[in-house]
Design brief:
The complex is a heterotrimer.
Chain A lengths: L1 H29 L10 H7 L2 H34 L5 H13 L2 H11 L12 H31 L1 H10 L4 H30 L2 H5 L5 H11 L3 H24 L10
Chain B lengths: L3 H12 L13 H10 L1 E5 L8 H11 L4 E5 L5 H10 L11 E5 L2 H8 L2 E2 L21 E13 L23 E3 L7 H13 L7 H14 L10 H5 L5 E5 H11 L5 E4 L7 E9 L5 H12 L1 H9 L3 E2 L2 H6 L5 H6 L3 H5 L6 H18 L6
Parallel strand pairs in B: 1-2, 6-7
Antiparallel strand pairs in B: 3-9, 4-9, 5-7, 5-8, 5-9, 5-10
Helix pairs in contact in B: 2-10, 3-11, 6-7, 6-15, 7-15
Chain C lengths: L1 H9 L9 H40 L10 H5 L3 H33 L5 H16 L3 H11 L4 H10 L13 H25 L3 H9 L4 H29 L3 H7 L6 H11 L5 H33 L1
Helix pairs in contact in C: 2-13, 4-8, 4-10, 5-8, 6-11, 8-10, 9-10, 10-13, 12-13
């Protein structure tokens, strides 16, 4: 047993070193803006740049809309497929696997070709249209994770019984979904939401090819033109992502733990 | 041939040459109204540190606050700009650029493809004939010479003084171009300049340049990373080949951390002219024309000068005494410009054709 | 219980109420159900199926607009073949090492009986690190292994070893693989931990009482059970690395000759000067990642048997 734990600790320690050192190096590099001494100048420079707040705010907004769209598209579909149309399930699984197969780069290439202003649905013909396209594209990226989160959530709470009980008590379909099912899967949905947020904030490919002022292109732009600010931004980015992931971990502790029936 | 307005202006400015206020030819009132009605101008590939564009754009915004400036993709190369016009031919949205700032060789190509619309600014006559299209489809805006920017924290020994020096083993893993030679004008001309330095004539310089970079790559001296400010400072590309104005503004930006020295190569000094043009499919053509008027006014031209670029009207303006002394003092050494070669359009075109198509096969920066 | 039988009938019809009102409600409910799935289907069509098909169409079109196989033949050009080769190699290497190391970590966490605190921290961090891919990761590795990076300087000052004199750069095969591992390993940890969790302790205890050694247990029970998940996740990691562009772009700009950078250049600046070829390049990418994921699908189906 002792030997077991020894090699376990060794592996974890070695990996910790591999993962920690780049973060430490980034942090130290970000402190070196002033020659010869350590200072937070790079961070001050980042926080005094209006484009930082503009692009971060823009990405947050896109993230929020992506999450809302995701909930609206995924939750009803998963609910009804589980409940009434289980034959549709393989189709849904296949669809949610597609974003992992088709790289984001290829997808956005397709969008630019298909939805430019000379086509039937001119998304890129206006700022609002391009923003909508960006939200939909981000949703496509987040789809596998959102689906898995909602699906797991529904699996845990046995929606069949809940629905039936509610129907017997005379609830309408809409009431069932919004006031019974949704609150119970809220934790799962929020996990999916935070993951979506992390994805959207870091997204570069789609935003840059659609020329939207998101956080990803901003990071790359700073990365080419400034020497120390990129490291500061990397640390900030890390803290934000950690915050989002930490929230997920926190939330899963509050997940309803009904016994599985299937 | 100076027209009456300019003669009048030059008389008044001659008396105030040291002051910072400059008079300029006013664009017509109809143009201003039409531009304001359009309300927006979409520009592309204008980094704020390139030729002082940050200040130039700010100046335009201050003059015409009703016109918002939509800045696309500051890191785009000349080919990226043309592609953006092509891709947005029918698009009147914010993706479509109104105005372009591309390398000289890209002008005739764009005109041939029908991507441009002609416009002659009010100071048209002061632009040298070699640097503009006679019909007004494109027109030179500024120029500089290619130089090496050297990060002294990494290159602690002697600086390379010439293209030939770059091949020395001291500079292993250190030399980089400031762009992709398949799409960026400055990278293409860097290859051309390297070719000229080996003694080739104008016709053979492109191939000679490719050979030079092949040798550089094989010797392990070439780094396949765009040598922008960050990679230079981080030591990834300690020797950057770029326009002198870019290197000078990067040096200012780094503020000694790390110290950057700029060296113009002794063999093969190439000057490159960039050109302005209005997209044929511009969603805001009047705003575009107003922008051009602004850029070619004294105010615009001096804005570029403050960014270490030589504006295209430099000779005419200095003859008229419109250039403040302190700006002149900050410029790079005039001796460099005396022996600079200004490749003609045909030479640049041929070079561009060769270099963009053959770079991958001849040099091909692969992952090792 | 009557509720159970009722729920069985529920699966296709509705609660047992008779009369014309129930029929109306049934039809309405059917309509409502379909309505709820429609957004999903429309979304899938508009944003997954249609763009891909449009690219397939363009891949078969030449600049004049006629049907042609030329674009796919153009994929055989030296530069493109090299790009695909390098992409496949880096993806395979980072996937293989990522999977192995990730598995080791998951095993260490669970079989090594790490305290709950350590496990939670590792899982959270894995979630963070697998999303760290892209621009911040590139910056981090430049700050670590770049010319003036912390580790580079450390190696030089403390150990007298000049990393860069050996010709190492971050944009070499090993440099890229090392960088990609930073998000591949955590992804593996996140996905394989539930599978390792499923290796019930009772099984290894039972094996022990039957006289099997630790090695026997792993060889006959543990690894065969984990093998489908492992192989499946390996495919996933491969596709993940193959489609990655942000990291490479932030590291080197446009100069690296890998497929994603090539495609990005083509979209942005028509670097290949042939849109049909760009579309063919994109479709080629999809074919390769599809093969990897078909393996994942087939193998994951088999893995499910063990998880019941």
């Amino acid at each position: 047993m002792k030997q077991n734990r020894l090699w376990a600790w060794l592996i974890v320690a070695l990996s910790a070193i591999y993962f920690f050192i780049p973060l430490l190096a980034t942090f130290i590099f970000s402190l070196r803006m002033r020659r010869g001494e350590l200072s937070f100048d790079a961070y001050a420079s980042v926080f005094s740049d209006p484009r930082f707040f503009a692009s971060f705010g823009y990405s947050l907004a896109i993230g929020a809309f992506t999450i809302i769209l995701g909930i609206l598209v995924v939750v009803p579909a998963v609910y009804y497929v589980r409940l009434r149309m289980p034959w549709l399930r393989p189709f849904m699984e296949f669809v949610t696997l597609l974003p992992l197969v088709i790289p984001a780069l290829v997808l956005v290439y397709g969008y630019i070709r298909l939805y430019n202003s000379s086509s039937l649905i001119p998304f890129t013909g206006s700022v609002l249209g391009t923003d909508i396209l960006l939200v939909c594209a981000c949703m496509t990226l987040a789809l596998p994770y959102m689906y898995r989160a909602v699906d797991t959530g529904m699996r845990t709470i046995d929606i069949a019984t809940l629905t039936e009980a509610a129907q017997i008590l005379g609830a309408s379909q809409w009431t069932i979904i919004s006031r019974i099912v949704f609150p119970n899967i809220l934790v799962a949905v929020l996990s999916g939401a935070f993951l979506t947020l992390a994805i959207v904030i870091g997204e570069f490919t789609i935003a840059s090819l659609l020329n939207r002022p998101a956080f990803g292109p901003y990071l790359v732009n700073i990365g080419t033109n400034r020497a120390y600010e990129p490291s500061a931004l990397a640390i900030i980015s890390l803290l934000v992502t950690w915050g989002a992931m930490g929230m997920i971990q926190l939330l899963t502790r509050f997940a309803p733990k009904t016994a599985r029936k299937d | 041939m100076l027209n009456k307005t300019h003669r009048l202006l030059s008389l008044t400015t001659a008396a105030v040459v040291a002051s910072t206020s400059v008079a300029f030819a006013e664009p017509s009132a109809e143009l201003i109204e039409a531009a304001k009605a359009e309300g927006q101008l979409t520009v592309i590939a204008l980094p704020h540190t390139w030729c002082g564009y940050g200040e130039v754009i700010a100046g335009f915004k201050e003059k015409y606050p009703e016109i918002t400036i939509n800045e696309l993709n500051p890191d785009a190369g000349s080919a990226d700009e043309l592609e953006a016009v092509r891709a947005n031919k029918d698009n009147k949205g914010p993706q479509a650029p109104d105005v372009l700032d591309v390398g000289l060789a890209f002008g005739p190509q764009a005109k041939e493809e029908g991507l441009l619309q002609p416009y002659k600014v009010s100071t048209w006559d002061e632009i040298p004939a070699e640097a503009k299209d006679a019909e007004g489809y494109w027109y030179g805006d500024y120029y500089g010479v290619l130089a090496f920017g050297i990060n002294k924290d990494v290159v602690t020994g002697a600086n390379p003084a010439s293209w030939a020096d770059l091949l020395k083993p001291d500079y292993a893993n250190q030399v980089a171009l400031a762009g992709d030679p398949r799409t960026a004008n400055n990278a293409i001309l860097s290859v051309y300049a390297a070719g000229l330095s080996t003694g080739a004539d104008a016709a053979g310089a492109a191939d000679a340049g490719l050979e030079f970079f092949k040798k550089l790559n094989d010797a392990g001296n070439f780094v396949p990373v765009d040598a922008e400010a960050a990679p230079i400072a981080q030591g990834t590309t300690p020797i950057a080949v770029n326009w002198d104005y870019n290197l000078l503004s990067q040096r200012d930006g780094m503020n000694g951390n790390p110290p950057l020295e700029i060296v113009v190569p002794s063999d093969g000094v190439v000057a490159g002219v960039y050109i302005q043009a209005i997209s044929a499919y511009a969603p805001h053509p009047n705003a575009a024309k107003l922008w051009m008027e602004y850029l070619y006014s004294d105010e615009g031209q001096l804005g570029w000068l403050a960014g270490y670029c030589h504006p295209i009207r430099f000779n005419a303006m200095s003859d008229a005494g419109k250039i403040p002394q302190e700006l002149l003092a900050k410029l790079p050494d005039a001796a460099n410009y005396a022996k600079a070669i200004f490749p003609s359009i045909e030479e640049q075109n041929a070079a561009k054709q060769t270099i963009t198509t053959k770079w991958d096969t001849v040099v091909g920066s692969d992952v090792q | 219980m009557s509720s159970n039988s009722a729920s069985a009938a529920d699966a296709s019809a509705g609660p047992e109420v008779s009369g014309p009102a129930s029929q109306l409600r049934r039809r309405f409910r059917l309509g409502f159900e379909w309505l709820s799935v429609v957004p999903f289907v429309v979304f899938a069509l508009m944003f997954l199926a249609a763009p891909t098909l449009s690219l397939v169409a363009q891949a078969f079109t030449d600049p004049a607009g006629n049907f042609t196989f030329d674009n796919f033949r153009g994929l055989g050009s030296d530069q493109i073949v090299r790009a695909y080769t390098i992409s496949i190699q880096v993806s395979a290497a980072s996937a293989l090492f990522g999977a192995l190391i990730g598995l080791l970590i998951a095993l260490a966490l669970i079989r090594g009986r790490m305290p709950q605190g350590v496990r939670a921290t590792v899982m959270t961090f894995s979630g963070v690190a697998s999303n760290f891919a892209g621009v911040p990761l590139a910056f981090a590795f430049i700050a670590t292994l770049g010319r003036l990076g912390l580790v580079t300087i450390l190696l030089r000052e403390v150990f007298g070893f000049d990393l860069y004199r050996t010709g190492f750069t971050l944009f070499s095969f090993w440099g890229l693989t090392l960088t990609y591992l930073y998000f591949q390993i955590p992804l593996m940890v996140v996905i394989i931990t539930p599978a390792v969790d499923g290796l019930k302790r009772e099984w290894s205890e039972a094996a022990q009482t039957l006289g099997a050694s630790k090695w026997d247990f792993w060889r006959y029970v543990g690894l065969p059970i984990l093998w489908p998940s492992f192989l499946g996740t390996l495919s996933l990691l491969f596709a993940n690395a193959f489609g990655a562009i942000a990291t490479a772009w932030a590291l080197t700009g446009s100069n690296l000759n890998i497929v994603t950078v090539l495609l990005y250049n083509q979209i942005r600046g028509d670097a290949l000067q042939n849109p049909g070829l760009g579309a063919a390049l994109a479709i080629g990418m999809v074919v390769i990642t599809s093969i990897a994921n078909i393996i994942y699908l087939v193998v994951a189906k088999r893995a499910e048997r063990w998880m019941k």
